[in-house]
Fold:
Amino acid sequence: MKKIYLLLMMVMAGAQSLRAADYTYLTFETTDGAKASVEVSSLTITVSGNTLTAGSQTFALSNLLKMYFSNADETTAIEEITAETLDEAVDVYDLQGHKVSKDQLRKGIYIVKSKSRTYKMMVK
Structure:
């Protein structure tokens, strides 16, 4: 009986690993509804205290609602813009659509367009 149970467990584990191999992202959903996806190839997950780190994403365990495998990047969270990103910016616009100099940003929300992406940025 133990051999059958062990064989059944091995078959189920193999089926699970085959199903996970079909997906390219592991998506984390937080309690505020934000989603962040990380590629599963060469993925490392660590837990330290009450913080989970998956690839380049870090989450407070108390804020995690669920995690699941997916075929697409479902990231919806707001990313932090670094000084390097702002230096790479091609154009900066205010919310009225006027082009603004990067050197003269005042308090407000701006649209930052780089060669690869477009960001919203808030200057406090």
Notes: Helices lie at 2-21, 83-88.
